[in-house]
Fold this sequence. Notes:
Elements: E1 2-4, H1 10-13, E2 17-21, E3 27-31, E4 42-49, E5 52-67, E6 70-73, E7 90-95, E8 99-105, E9 108-116, E10 122-130, E11 136-148, E12 160-165, E13 168-173, E14 181-185, E15 189-192, E16 197-202, H2 204-208, E17 214-218, E18 221-227, E19 232-240, H3 250-267, H4 281-295, E20 298-301, E21 306-309, E22 312-313, H5 320-332, H6 337-349, E23 359-360, E24 367-368, H7 374-389, H8 392-398, H9 400-411, E25 413-414, E26 421-423, E27 429-430, E28 444-445, E29 448-449, H10 458-478, H11 481-501, E30 503-504, E31 509-510, H12 525-528, H13 539-551, E32 553-554, E33 557-559, H14 576-582, E34 588-589, H15 592-606, H16 610-637, E35 667-668, H17 669-677
Antiparallel strand pairs: 1-7, 2-3, 3-4, 4-5, 5-6, 5-11, 7-8, 8-9, 9-10, 10-19, 11-18, 12-13, 13-14, 14-19, 15-18, 16-17, 20-21, 22-35, 23-24, 25-26, 26-27, 28-29, 30-31, 32-33, 33-34
Helix pairs in contact: 4-16, 4-17, 5-6, 5-7, 5-17, 6-7, 7-10, 9-10, 10-11, 15-16, 15-17
Amino acid sequence: MKYGKEELSLEKGIEREWIITNGIGGYSSSTVIGANTRKYHGLLVAPLMPPGNRQVILSKVDENIEIDGKGYNLYTNICKDYISDGYKYLVSFEKEYIPIFTYQVEDVIIKKFICMEYGKNTVGIYYYIKNGEKQTKLTLAPIVNFRGFHTTNNNDYIDLKQDVENNKVKMIINNCSQTPVYTYLSEGQYIKHDNDMFRNMYYIEEEKRGQGALENHVVPGVYEVTINPNEEKYITFVCSLEQNIEEINAKDLINKEIIRLSTLIYNTDLLDEKRKESKDPEYINLVKNLTIAADNFVVYRPSFALYTIIAGYHWFLDWGRDTLISFEGLLLKTRRFSEAKEVLLTMIRDMKYGLVPNGYSGYDGRPLYNSVDASLLLFEAVRRFLSYTNQYEWVRENIYPSLVKIMNAYQSRIDTDGNNIYMDKDFLISSGTENIQNTWMDAKIGDYVVTPRNGKAVEVNSMWYNALKIMEELTTLMRGREEAKRYEELAKKCKKSFNEKFYNKKRKCLYDVLGDSKIRPNQLFALSLSYPVVDPNSEIAKNIIDTVDKKLLTPYGLRTLAKGEPGYCERYEGDMVKRDMSYHQGVIWPWLLGLYFDSLRNMIRYEKNRNTKKDLEAKLEEFRKNVKSTFEKELYQGKTAGSTKTAGRSRTAEHRPAGPGNHDDSKSAAGISKAGCA
């Protein structure tokens, strides 16, 4: 992905954002012109309790070039009363593995490469300077802070203590003596500043979101490097929470990261030589970018000594539901089977009363259990894991006992965190209370649940039937046919009740919740799982797909609510209340494309009529082409540089999807991975 000068104006430049990550929940992120437009932007955003408790440490580094005594600012900062215009000297931005900025001032060329050290809270910036005919000086001004990334610092004074040894600076910011910040430059000199504040950095995206938009930072000092006429310089700048940063060479960091990511791309089965698309350059590029994007979400949680999956950037942690939705795309399609096993172990590690955690607190790591579907999605993830690996013995020893516990719990009653989950007399699962949102449509404003779906939800009972059939399958293999019969009988009764109660003949679709006839995409779970609860070759299945085609399907994903339904809203914008009110009320979510794809695939698999099967195969192939085309378009024209999805600032549901798996416009694991599966 490369943008030329025509794409790097102020207006266009602040629309496109980039992000790189460090494998433990930290990241580096900004716009393609280097102007921070969110409080979540920063060159080093470090988790103090990986992957949680993220702190903005290094906001940015402002560069200045002085040529024969004349100064030029290369940085772009947006403040309330002025905008610095360093973007005028930016001739290109590119991101394949890492972001690369190229500037030209007179006959001086400056290239800036940004990279994070994998597994460490460290960011390195590698500068290549090719000087012209005149004496030149490069000045670097680190702009630092130490605050939680959900907040802004409006203090007029930031307490900063510095210990300088050559070009290595140890900083204690706001008395955080347990977490010193280190900066280092490989050559030149450091000039210490006292009480030098950067005031009123203006985050225009936060103002749109109804959040505080102004922030103060501190500038501890500047680094200066002299470049002689016609000289070439290679300079490393490092900011880290690690102590021995003078030993770090940014070029080495970059090379290691490129090798790591290249290995992931090489290993994915999406580039298997047997695939006819594997020689298509556009397809290869799409897979490459999807694999790199997917890697951002696979992180190590040291407190568990296990891998987990981040639900979305900039601010989400690991959510059970999102993890299991994205599981195949992130870990199985990319053949990261070792990490996949660890993620499954993460899911059951804190299981309580048959519930896997829906998430973890970002501050104390406490597990949260407000989810009826995460535990049921675990069954599908396990089955798909087995379809790729055949590691039945490992599942028998490590996962199967937990699946038994889930089964037993759902057949009784689970009151944990107000979930009120139980199997009713009709063998269907009921869940929820008036003030609880425990399905994936979980927007809540105070005590107000925006999309109340209490009772018997269509996707929950589709998952329940699927879980029963998977348990029948696994128990037959692991404990014998006799013990498996009880799951078989429960599954038969569940399926009978489901098909008797959920079909809405009038609207030719499934009820979203029994008693709720609004048309939503959740009904696709009845067709898309390993064991569809609705027969895929039935007339009902065809009606479901026809209704979804007409009412919900778009090039970018599926609407969360059909047009014309009460409460429909196609714009996702404004303050938090407005955004949460629209979150599942019509806004398009890309990850739902995976459900549509799997539904068509199951219909083809079960169809016996040759002509009908050919029609479905043609429909699926056309869908695949459209998804590929849309994602390629986003890759080149979307607002997230080097990714295959937008940053999510949806203008309308028709044109820009909101990011799935999150309550805002952050980048999502589920959206990327399910698209990768399709």
